[in-house]
Amino acid sequence: MPELPEVETVRRQLEPALVGRRFERVEILDPRLVRPLEPLEVAAELEGERVVAVERRGKYLIVRFESGRVLLIHLRMTGSLRHVRDGLQEDPHRRAVVRLDDGSDVTYRDVRRFGTWVVVEPSDVGPYLDARLGAEPLERSFSTARLAERLAGRRAPIKAALLDQRTLAGMGNIYADEALWRAKIHPLTPAAALDEGGVQRLTRAIKEALRAGIARQGATLRDYARPDGGSGSMQHEFKVYGRDGEPCDRCGTPIAKTRVAGRGTWFCPVCQGSAPQAASSSSNRPSRSRRHSSV
């Protein structure tokens, strides 16, 4: 699933291709992409719009137009965007095509068909995003104090709290595991149980994990690809994610796997301590499965 580093990589590659360009023709090939609206209706709204900015908020791509309108794109589990200059190849998973006024195309493909495109009026953009998303973890305003405020009183495991987009915008399964390993915090630790030092380590670790992902242009495990068709390389740098049974880079202990909030979760049982007794259960026993989670 594309997370903040993957979406930021897509944004950075699409920005020079889109800014200043006009949407000459729009084809929405899958009605699920824009439901409950009609594909022809949404396509007609987008045609003729000129792009002035390509931004990101959490896992949302934000395409801003001269008119003030905004196209919000959420890639969900398997969505990806490609910028193509030399014609389109056959692709059974293509869900939308935008022909730009320079003759190039931006295509949207999505195997699982969970992605969404939403056209939002200027006055509705802020409320729409703010109702769904918490703090941006790479902004200057994101601090230890702000994270502590979001975690205060929460009994949920810290891994589950990090996956809640209202806590942190853009965090997902991969980078939550990577950040917790960096911070030496067990994923089942109750969020409210972290002391000031733990929250401070976690704040720093979240930024480090996300920046590492961006620097390597994201992680390609299954469907994610950059708009130029290339792959990210963060998957070669994982400290714990998907590495059950392999030695921890820090202490050499085999990485273990459990489940938190229904998600496969990887951690070092020595570096990150043992699971809090109250949170342990038969459903959270470590597994040695070598298969990557799809989440």
Keywords:
295 residues; alpha+beta; N-terminal domain of MutM-like DNA repair proteins; Helicase, Ruva Protein, domain 3; four-stranded antiparallel beta sheet; 7 helices; disordered C terminus
Can you walk through the features of this model?
The protein is of the alpha+beta class. The protein folds into two domains: 4-130, N-terminal domain of MutM-like DNA repair proteins (Alpha-Beta Barrel), CATH 3.20.190; 144-284, Helicase, Ruva Protein, domain 3. Helices cover 25% and strands 20% of the residues. It contains seven helices and ten strands. It has helices at residues 4-18, 39-46, 125-130, 144-151, 158-163, 173-183, 196-215, and strands at residues 23-28, 51-57, 60-65, 70-74, 79-84, 94-100, 105-110, 116-120, 256-260, 263-267. The strands form three sheets. Strands 1-6-7-5 form a four-stranded antiparallel sheet. It has a four-stranded antiparallel sheet with strand order 2-3-4-8. A hairpin with a 2-residue loop joins strand 2 and strand 3 (60-65). The longest helix has 20 residues, at 196-215.
